[in-house]
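Thread: sanity check for a docking pose with nicotinamide-adenine-dinucleotide

Original post by kr_44:
Hi all, I'm comparing my docking run against an independent structure prediction. Below are the sequence and the ligand SMILES. Could someone generate the full complex and paste the structure tokens? I mainly care about where the ligand ends up relative to the chain.
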Amino acid sequence: MTRREFVRLGAGAVAAVNATLLAPAALGAESGPRIRFAIVGTGIRGCDLLRSAQKVPAGVCVGAADLYETRHQAAKEAWGGEIATTRDYRTLLDRKDVDAVLVATSDHLHRRVVLDAVAAGKDVYCEKPMSHNVADGLAMVEAVQTGKRIFQAGSQRVSSILYAKAREIYQSGRLGDVHSIDAKWNRNSPGGAWIYPVPADASPQTVDWASFLRDAPERPFDPVRFFRWRLFRDYGSGLGGDLFVHLLSGIQFITGINSPAIRAYSSGGLYHYKDGREFPDQLETVYDYPEMQVHLHCNQNNNDGDEGIAFYGSKGTLLVTGKTVTFTPQDIAPRFESYGWGGMTAAQRQQGADQFRAAHPAPPPALDEAESYTVPQGYDDTADHLANFFRAVHSREHVMEDEVFGNHAAIGCHLANYSYFRRAVATWDAATKTIKG
Ligand SMILES: NC(=O)c1ccc[n+]([C@@H]2O[C@H](COP(=O)([O-])OP(=O)(O)OC[C@H]3O[C@@H](n4cnc5c(N)ncnc54)[C@H](O)[C@@H]3O)[C@@H](O)[C@H]2O)c1
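Reply from moderator J.T.:
Ran it for you. Here is the predicted complex with nicotinamide-adenine-dinucleotide included:
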């Protein structure tokens, strides 16, 4: 499954690259009883989770809750079979035969549902961004740890075979010293800007509006707010919560960083989608971590370049895009650099060249080999992420993307939004676990 390609390096050099197709592992083939799970929130993501869960033999869905009546049928179709459905998720938490709960509600209700699920003794998979604000995340971490529950945040790339390969290359040290990471995720369509359909049957009869507004300010029924909640700060978290958290989770996983940034500065604006939304459609944030600068930028008005994370090291660059990881070595073999001698006499130049040759008698070492890895067509990292969660529920061992990891990635979103809305540098105060600035 390996083929050779060639990549161009800086200074005109060309290197061979081995391109390999990655092989997914079996999903939950191990023995043991199937984990019985219920799902809360069966909208776009909840239905995706159910479709992916069908591929994971270690789990079986036994119930689904959603505030919009018609989504009960959508949940059954996504799971591909009959399941108990309800508007009130607490009836699912009361069931003794439910081991675990998947939470895929709008961001502002993650805390409420997770705390109730933990109090009922359930293990929890909660969609990203784990929290809607810093206080929510801290409360969730404490509840999960006190209740000794298994928790996994839902940024599925952390379980992807592609990201595992990127982590392996990064952790091998082949990049040299890495102090700069640049990540982006760009879109250019109404759907990419969260203009989702508002169904014709949406009404106060089919939607439990009061439950949606729990932990949010009171308002008259508004189907646009219910179905396009990402546009509004009371329920969503903007590009920071939607896309930055995925990028930051990937960065945390690959580098091993598991702490919030020290500070962040955001710039951006609402340039195109002036439809009453409260978040920018272009956002850039520069984060300072110890010894590392991370630059994230997301755009909803031009999708050139799409999605990718680049890790810039002194010996090479690692690029992770949607389906491919590429390592490209930097050609840093010592060579006589004539540029700096341009302002010297011919004799001085000659002397410099002679000294260089004397100091470097051996030919330069061969360039490290470039590598590229691709996931097979149709690879589903969400299925792998669910499999990891079910495995942990069974084994009681922590997953990589546990409550602490998920909380740190979500704090990255909150730092970005804090800075954007206040037009100030946001600083993480580790002593008080608050954002200042
Ligand atoms: N991991 C990913 O790639 C990914 C992708 C998309 C969305 N998400 C996350 O998933 C979550 C859901 O996003 P979505 O796009 O599916 O939104 P959505 O609006 O399509 O669905 C959310 C559903 O949650 C239901 N809900 C809200 N509160 C509820 C409650 N108290 N009880 C029962 N149901 C409740 C709503 O009725 C709605 O149907 C968000 O946090 C989002 O950030 C993650």
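The chain has a mean pLDDT of 95. Hope that helps with the comparison, let us know if your pose agrees.
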